From TrEMBL:
InterPro entries: BlueCu_1, Cu_oxidase_CS, Cupredoxin. Pfam families: Copper-bind (PF00127). Keywords: Copper, Metal-binding, Signal. It comes from Chlorella vulgaris (Green alga). The keyword Protease does not apply. The keyword Magnesium does not apply. Residues 1-24 form the signal peptide. This is Blue (type 1) copper domain-containing protein.
Length: 156
């Protein structure tokens, strides 16, 4: 039994070491989720123990630096939220849009076209994912979306 525990501990350390980012890089959202959930593993004939899922309201907050960048597709879970943060004096805002096409105008049409964060020189806005699906967000300042300031979240 002690040998099994020792092997499990060594395996968990090896998995964690390979999941760690290089110096100066951050963990992926999936990597942060593994560490947040405690990444439990078990060996032997019995079933693997996994952390009990919490209520959907207890999700992870994903911080996103919001500015003139191109953004890779992101992943999240129902109950997670994304917080868009921007500063530096250039006005930005956050709008949820129906798909990856920049709209000709940003006018509310819930539930897929809604303002998440008002335009300001600096600020933050948070959106909570309450259902699975694809969620698109863009900056509603003229020309910013067309310059690549949009991001897609796939929520499972």
């Amino acid at each position: 039994m002690a040998v099994t525990r020792l092997c499990c501990a060594a395996l968990l350390l090896a998995v964690c070491a390979t999941a760690m980012p290089a110096h100066g890089q951050s963990l992926s959202h999936q990597g942060r989720r593994l560490f947040q959930m405690g990444g439990m593993m078990a060996a032997g004939p019995g079933p693997a123990e996994a952390p009990a899922p919490g209520p959907a309201s207890e999700g992870m907050d994903i911080a996103l630096d919001w500015g003139f960048n191109t953004y890779p597709d992101e992943e999240a879970m129902v109950g997670d939220s994304v917080t868009f943060n921007w500063n530096g004096g250039t006005p930005h805002g956050v709008y949820r849009i129906p798909d990856g096409t920049c709209p000709s105008s940003f006018s509310p049409a819930p539930p897929t076209m809604e303002e998440v964060g008002a335009v300001a020189g600096e600020g933050s806005a948070t959106f909570k994912f309450d259902a699975p699906g694809d969620y698109w967000f863009a900056c509603q300042v003229s020309g910013h979306c067309a310059s690549g300031m949009l991001v897609k979240f796939t929520v499972a």
